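pinning this so it doesn't scroll away 📌
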Amino acid sequence: MKTRIFTYVECPCGHRGALIQTIDAGAFRTGWHRAWLRKLTRDGTYDGEDELFAEMTPGCPTCGRSLSPDDVIGRSELQGTGAVLRLKSEPAASETTLSIGG
């Protein structure tokens, strides 16, 4: 079963975006999941203990500030095969596949 985890962040300038992870319970045993950014850049400089932020290095496209776990304003999960909805006018998200574990 697929689970999507949305981590919502807000920059002090007011811009909001999300870090989105897709984990497949069957595939997770092989040590991978997909993660991408929505309405954020990969221009951040975060280098802390949070694996998701360290791998994705989210940045604010409005003011250029690097975002960290301190900027998280909420989290939510979507389980099952429901698609992540995106507005037609929204630009395509940056995508990467992260390797976690061995």
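📌 and the second one:
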Amino acid sequence: MAEVVLANGGTEKKVMLAIDESEYSYYALTWVLDNLKESLNKSPLLIFMAQLPTKNAYTFAASLGSARMYCPVSPTQEFNNSVKENQNKLTLALLEKAKEICASRGVNAETLTEVGDPQTAICNAVEKLNINLLILGERGLGKIKRAILGSVSNYCVQNAKCPVLVVKKP
């Protein structure tokens, strides 16, 4: 875990960066490496990524003339396993890319992933790992979209058990 030395010389703190596949997450990562590198010398930066749970039923739409309602179709176990496997491969590849970016800048990083809703998975990881600073990239949603869709960064600011730094892309 990354630790930040306090200005008063006190104890060191764990730092976690939560990412997803967006450019905003990678901007936040480069911002951390540019601005907090000196503070991250003693231990690795923890990079976290939540994997959305796969759904057990998929809805297939028919053309308007051939069907009047949409019927959920239960996928086979093989299909579910394939979706989970592909999602896991993508997550691990994104985490590996982030780890390589850190290594290229001289920062040691550890990666962690959990399956679940991103906002609750991030807050749960913060609590389980005793994180002292959570860093997120702001997705750039406008006020209306944020109100309708919700915002992971807003949820974490309100519910994480530590200070949260939200990095905005200019």
